[in-house]
Write a structure and sequence with these properties.
alpha/beta, 16% strand, 17 strands, 32% helix, Alkaline Phosphatase, subunit A, seven-stranded mixed sheet
């Protein structure tokens, strides 16, 4: 009979230049709370997903309120997760409005999205806004994980220059702000995210091992096989299966990244070594989302932001037969053909989010899944891109925070209810207690189970 062992939640598989965190196993002892000498419950996670240019609101907003609502066209891909959703209407980011500062709605929409503060209008070095909700959480509970927060995206971002009517590019490129003057730049290269998640502690050693892996076409897992084999023999069958599934997913993601790099090398033989960014936008998004799932599954972080594209993005969507630019289509002038194409872009983004929810739901954790134990907010700082309005924003939450949120509902709030009221309520559930955030006026009611 195999003797039962107990593992610390922070157990890692180690090899030269490599440290791979493990998912939650049945043999792991509970985490210890930082401030209290009591076992910590299943980790709570919070992430924010931003899409630019608003959405086609008639195809976003459910007609019915409460639990008996029908998913509109843009949300149709979320059918399997309807009972895990809170669709929230009527929320507003007032500080994204001009308030005397003139044009620049896209830059304001991104920078205000998680701060609720009016950005100082400048294209110089004197940028100033507020601290974002994710960084408020990271500053108070981020020390419990290897990475206090993880900032991801798909568009390169500039931190200076004029990107929108006199607003610095830093406002358009970032939704996460560590201080009023310091944005948290996002990472868009899946290879660099992968290396960051699975690197060892010494940078010089990590770089050398990475080069060695590529030279001999080895996987990061090859460097921890001995450690993994020793640990596996001590685990019960259920944990063996869970570890095998996790390591298989790590190898699969690494293989996908490598294939992208090989393809780029073949296409561009005279250029410097590629950085591993897929040419296909959908493949890029899904690689980044899969890496986010791994970071949550292994408790490397509990807080993240994800920008599908920068504010005001005019990306073409030829991959879904929409060759026109996104921003151009958002100014549809009530043209039905343009509205239909805009709705197709919105559905494409939501299909990627639905893919992410499926991956989160597939990972068992405690009595539920990663999705059950998370609060994942998806939305934009603009409502209707044609009007550039910042009230009645498209906002939804997926995940019930371990059953503490009453999901499976469409809730409508009074007009101009501050979005930051919702953020205060989410922070409370993360056990991050602050009195106010940006232009908040109170906690948002109507979320509880």
């Amino acid at each position: 009979m195999k003797r039962r062992i107990t593992l610390d939640r922070r157990t890692m598989l180690r090899g030269v230049g490599t440290a791979i965190a493990l998912p939650m196993l049945e043999t792991m002892t509970p985490l210890r709370a930082v401030a209290e000498d009591v076992p910590e419950e299943v980790p709570r996670r919070m992430a924010f997903f931003f899409v630019p240019n608003g959405v086609h609101m008639p195809h976003w907003t459910p007609k019915q309120e409460g639990a008996d609502f029908e998913l509109p066209p843009i949300l149709a891909s979320l059918t399997d997760f309807q009972q895990d959703l809170l669709v929230l209407s009527g929320l507003t980011q007032d500080k994204a409005r001009p308030n005397g500062d003139g044009p620049g709605d896209h830059a304001r929409a991104a920078s205000v999205f998680l701060t609720g503060c009016q950005p100082h209008k400048t294209d110089g070095a004197d940028i100033r806004i507020g601290v974002s909700v994710d960084q408020i959480a990271a500053q108070q509970i981020g020390q419990r994980t290897k990475f206090p927060s993880l900032e991801l995206g798909c568009d390169r971002g500039a931190q200076s220059g004029n990107c929108d009517s006199g607003y610095s590019c830093a406002y358009s490129s970032n939704i996460s702000w560590r201080t009023p003057n310091t944005p948290m730049a996002k990472e868009i290269d899946p290879r660099l995210v992968f290396e960051r998640l699975f690197a060892g502690s010494r940078k010089t050693e990590v770089a050398a091992v990475r080069d060695q892996r590529r030279r001999f076409q080895k996987s990061v897992l090859d460097f921890v096989l001995d450690d993994a084999s020793r640990l596996r023999k001590k685990l019960a069958k259920g944990d063996q299966r869970k570890m095998d599934e996790y390591l298989t997913s790590v190898r699969e993601i690494e293989t996908r990244i490598s294939r992208v790099e090989v393809g780029l090398t073949n296409d561009q033989p005279n250029l410097a070594a590629p950085v591993g960014i897929p040419k296909n936008y959908g493949a890029h998004i899904r690689l980044m989302l899969d890496l986010l799932v791994l970071s949550f599954q292994t408790d490397l972080t509990r807080i993240s932001t994800f920008m599908f594209a920068n504010a005001g993005s005019n990306r073409s969507y030829k991959l879904i037969d929409v060759p026109e630019g996104h921003h151009d289509l958002s100014h549809h002038g009530n043209n039905e053909e343009k509205q239909a194409k805009l709705s197709s872009i919105n559905r494409f983004h939501m299909e990627q989010f639905s893919y992410f929810l499926g991956r989160m739901q597939s990972v068992a954790e405690g009595e539920g899944t990663l999705l059950d134990n998370s609060m994942l907010l998806y939305g934009s700082g603009i409502g209707d891109g044609n009007r550039h309005n910042h009230n009645d924003l498209p906002i939804l939450i997926a995940g019930s925070d371990g059953g503490r949120l009453s999901t499976g509902r469409h809730v409508r709030y009074p007009t101009n209810t501050p979005l930051n009221n919702l953020y205060l309520s989410l922070l409370d559930r993360m056990k991050v207690n602050i009195e106010s955030l940006g232009d908040s006026t109170a906690r948002l009611a109507g979320l509880e189970a």
